[in-house]
Structures are given as C-alpha cells and as structure tokens.
Amino acid sequence: MGTSPAGVAGVRMRGFERLPWRRIILVVLGIAIVLVVGIGAWKTLSLNGAEGGYSGAAWRDFVVEGVSQGAIYAMIALGYSLVYGILRMINFAHGEVFMAGAFGSYFFADAYEKSGFLDRDPVLALLIITGVAIAVSVGTAALLERLAYRPLRHAPRLVPLITAIGASLFLQNVFRGFFGPQPYGYPKPHILTGGTTILGVAMTRVQLLVIVVAVLSMVALQLFVARTTTGRSMRAVAQDSEIASLMGINVDRVIVITFVIGGILAGIAGVLFSLTFGQVQFTMGFRPGIAAFTAAVLGGIGSIGGAALGGFLIGLLRAVGPPLILTGFGIPSVFSVRDAFVFLVLVLVLVFRPGGLLGSGEAEKV
Amino acid sequence: MRKPRWFAVVTLLGALSLVAAGCAEEEGGGGGGGGGGGIDCATVEFGCVEVGPDDPINIGVSQVISGADATLGQDQVNGIELALDHRDGTFDGTDGTVLDHAVELTVEDDGCSAEGGQAAATALAADTSVVAVIGTSCSSGALGVADTILSEKGILLFSASNTNPALTAEGTHQPFYARTAHNDRIQGAIVAEFALGQDVGAKSAATIADESPYTQGLVAAFEQNFEAGGGTLTGSEQVNSEDTDFKAPLRSLAEGNPDVLYFPIFVAACTLVIKQAQEIMPDTTLIVSDGCLSSDTLKNAGADAKGVYASSPDIAASANPFYLNELVPAYKKEFNSAPLSVFHSHAYDAANILMDAIEAVAIQNEDGSLSIPRQALRDAVFATKDYEGSTGTFTCTPLGDCATDVTIGIFRAPGWPVEGGSPNAEAVYSDTKSLEDVL
To answer: Which ipTM was obtained for this model?
Structure first.
C-alpha cells in the first residue's frame, strides 16, 4: 500500500521523461519566433507615415543598403571560411588583413586625387588602387601564415586562436604607430558620385559597383575552387590533409594559396569599403571583421556558398530587420540594437541548425 | 630547527612594524596639533594629506594623453602646467610655489573611457600623497567611475572638460566632484535656441546619439529645449561610435523629413554621418557639437562639411585681455603650438582655484610641513564665488558646477575655429546663459 503511489509516480515520471522535450522546446520556440516576427512586421507595415511607418521608397533603400553592405561582409567572410575549411582555425586577424589593404591603397588613391589622375582616367586609377590593396592584403595574409601560424600548425587548437587575436592587436598597433590614430579621408572619383536606377531600384553608383564587383569575385572564386587543379587540391586538403599529402599534394602550398585568396578578396573588399565610406582608420577592420565572422558562422563555416549567403543576410538583417520587426512594437531608436538583433538571429539559427545555414548540419567544435 | 627560526623572523617583523606604526602615528598627531586652525587631523573625516618639510605638494591629473583623443587631455595638462608656471606672477618657465612648497603633478592616462577613468582613479586614490585630482577628460571616465572612487576616499575630483549634466545633477552628483567646464544643459539649450531662431528657422528636428554619456546628455538637453521652444521631434536614433554604415538609421530619420539633424557625436563617426546625411537628406540643416569640431572633420568630409554648424564654448567672446595677451602667447612659447583644444583655459582656472584653496586651508606646521584636511579643501573649492578666471567668472554651486555663466558660439563650416578652417572665425551666433536660465 505504502509503496504503490510512489511506484505509479515513478512510472509516470518515466513517461514524462520519454517525451521528446528537446524537440517540443524547439517547436514552441520556433512558433514563438514566427509569431513575434509576424506580429512585429504586420504592425510596422500597418503604420502610416504619421505614426512612424515607412514609405515604399524607404524599404527599397533599406534593402539596397543592406545588400551592398552585405556584399562587403560576404567578401571578408569568405576569407574566414576558406581558412577555417582548410586549417580548422579562426583567423581573427583577417579583419586587419582587410584594414591593411584599405590603408595601403589610401596613399595611392590620395596621390592620384591630388595629381588629378583619379578623375582623368578613373578606371585605370581604380584598377591600380585595387591592385595595391590586393598586394598589401595578400602580403599581410601570407606573412601572417608564414610567421604566426605555420610554426604553430601542430599545436593544440587554442594556441593559434590566441595567436590570431595577438596578431590582430599587433597589426592594429603597427598601423597606429606608423600613421596615427586619426581617420584619413579616402577620395572618390567623380564618375562614382551620384545615383543611378537599375531595374526600377534607385541606388548610388558606389553601391552598384560594390554589388557587381562582389558578385563577380565570388563567382570567380567558386569557378576557381570547382574547376582548377589547385581548387581541387584545396578541397582535398579541406577533407583530409594527411591523405591529401599522401596523394602528392603539397599541403603547405595549398595553405598559402588559401591565405592568398582570402587576402585578394579582403583587398578588394577594402577598396569597396573605403569608396563607400570615404574614410580609413586603423580600427576599421574590427567591426566588419566581427560582422563577417558572424556571417561565416551563420552561413556554415567552411562553406563558400554559406559565407556568401551569410554576408548578404547579415547586411540585410542590420538594415531591414530592426525597422521591420521592432518599429511595430513601438521601440524607440530601433537601430541602436541592430548588432544585438544580428546576434539573436545567429543564436536562433544555430539552435535549429548547429552547423549554420549551408553547413554540414553538425555542430562544429570550434 | 626551521620552524623556530621562521617564527622568530615573523615575530621580529611584526614587532618592528608595530614600532614603525607607533612612530608614524606620533608624527601625524604632533603635526596636526602644531598647526591649529581648529582642525584635528586625527579625528576629522577623511583625514589630512601630510606634506613633509621638503616634499612637494602632489596634485593628481587624470587626462587622456594617448590615442585618438589625446589632444583633449594634453591641452589640459598644458593648461595646468601654465598655471604652475604663473603661480609666481610671470610666465617665465619656472614654477611658482604654494606655501613655500613646490607643486608636482602625477599624470595618469584615463583614455577618455570608463575603464580608463577607473584605472586612473584607482591608481591616484592609492597614492596617499595626492591632494586632489584635476580630471577626467571625458564624462564617461568620471560618471559613476572616477567620481565615486575618489569621493569615497574624500579626494576632490575637479574637471575642466566633463560636460555631461548627470555629473552635477541631484541624485547622481558625488560629494567630492566639481568642474570648471560648462554643463551641457546650457550647450543643448543654446543649440536648440539657435535651431529654432531666425538663422535656421527649424520647426522639426531629429537627433543621433552614440553610447557615450556626453552625446546622450547633449541630445537630451537639446530635445527638451527644442520641444519646449515649440519645435517637433521627428525621430531619434542611437548608433555605435565604431560603426561606419549609418545610411539605414539616416534613411529611417529622413522619413520624418526633419528641418534639422543634431548629432553631437565624435570625429570619426561624425564625419561619416555628415557625408551620408548629405546624400540622404541634402536639404536638412546639420548641427554638431564640440566633440566633432576638429580639423580632421573638415579635411575628411571635404565639400560635404560645407555649411555644417558646430557649437562650442565661445572663448573669443568670453576671454579677457589676460587670456589673449599673456596666456595664449605663453602657451605658444612653451609648447610650440597653438592651443590644441578649448579646455586648456578651464584647466588653467581649475588648477588656480585648487591651489588657492590649498593655501586657504592647509595647516602650516612648525617644522615646515603641511597638513591639508581633505574635507576642508573640498569645502573651500565649493565656496568659490565670483572668481575671475581666464575665460569667465566662476561661482561653484552646491552640486559642483563652477562655470555658471557660459557663452556658447555656433560656427558654420568651413569657418570653424580650428586649423584647416579659419582659426579666427567668428561665431555666426553666440549666446550666454546661466544654469538657472535653462531647463
């Protein structure tokens, strides 16, 4: 008599435990998120101008701004993702590789503007400027690999991670030491001032250039990795570097090439970023670096398509997300929380897909 | 064998330290008794700073002297050094004395940040010879950080460039905090008055702040006064000072179609907002404040900066002949440059008010040493009334605001009073207000 209630409770408990709690929590969480987003968006869109609602033109501008900003994040994110794919290592100094390229090209851009060459032959001038940015970024990335990472290749995972953070601080301070803490104004050729309309969407010429160049570079990268011998050996090393080296692939060479490709993309992104904002400073790599790293994780780190998708998504989330979802709830100055918003989305994506959007679906042990 | 020997050493050390403590106590007690003045250093709250017969008086300085904002702090260190130089009546390169003691500065870098303010204040509070601290450079370093740490120890924190209203507001003011810098309630009010006035004739305004107390205080003061003056606020945004892409927030603010956009943020972000705002809201009048008033802004924003208004303390309007004919030439001679920012004069005045207060309250002992009671020193500074400073008159309120009448000028780019603009630019608008006049 005395034991039977406890026994019944025990049986009940076991049934209780057998329920798929993890799945139930996820489903409830998912429904709650969809509801919040849906209600917020619906409330925002039903506001009229006088109540703080946005016009159609404003939404178009938010999207264009998000896409062009996202294109730059995507190009930097590819650098993180490629290196991670090959070395299983987060190169936290990649933001500084981007900064170095932008800073290096500033001196040429400034000289060309003063001599008038920038406006006399803008295409050639921009090509040379971009070439310089690529050279500086590639040089920085290759030196990082050779001096900071290669000696530690067989050390435990945390060691190169800390080294990368140290290298990032080192590079920032080198640039501050040489060029001072103040921002420098980056010139923009006249051909890039003003706006244009593409398929009925108004955008500035710089935004158009950013989107076109970014998409072209990413297509070129995809072709390189998919079609060339070097690209194939990169994929082989990413799958298993030991077996790849047994197959006669020079792993060191592949790793250097990976850093070089990351550097090329970072250099181009540096010029696009500088043309967009017209200013370079020694701290400029930090925030885009963090945003791009987030993009790489969101898209699935190690995946090229994932990094590109993640970059565009982060850009869009920052520009469109806060006004769309938060304005409806009457939250003031919605853009103050745009970074928190991005990280919230990142956490939610990782809850449902631990490997990122286009990742393997498995949680990566970083 | 070992244990007894250790034990003996420890016992010996303990005994010695007891003797040393006994001696020190005796010395301190004797000194306080000898001076008179009705203050007994042994019993008075927060005690006294003891300055030995041949020791200098040590004044702490907490300023930003490295990084992007270094000119702000270095300018004030220069101002304080000039005050020491002029203590003997002339700018001759040799320092004067206070009660026959030399004055020495202990300079800590506060980095213009909350963390830096905490580190500098902790270091200075730990140094028992520090009489008082002149600083911090930025409101973020003082608010809830340096002002609290030093007030707990009874050390006066006297700032020449903190302008955030909360520092001297009822409820948040710390008892040992005072400043010669203006309160941004006045600056915000004058900017709002200018925006509503005939030069701009604005009916509506939008604002952008960043995460710093300086910009938030200014924006709040502006918004309050703008609405009280009959204007409409169409929106306000908060951004991060390290961000670069402000187009989306600007586009959102542009929906309200404001006549004026006020964004008193710092140089790097401010320049970017100027450029991006010219693209997104070309017809809106842009107004910034002294955090953005810099030659870097003019250089990097280029043509986009043209027509942007900036508010700042109007030194040219409030300066007296001494400042123009003696202090500025001495600054140029000693530091080989024109003044780096506008706060050296406030720092000069703060140092003098402080040294006067030390002379008033210090107990001169028979052996030539000084005992400076902390509480009395603070009270003497707070009792400052109608003090004729280099760029204005100071009367300290019970909440620590010493600059009671403040002249703020509005300058129109490229006519900003900085290098690269026109250093002798005249304000397009200038007004003087006292704290009682503003909300």
So the answer is: 0.81
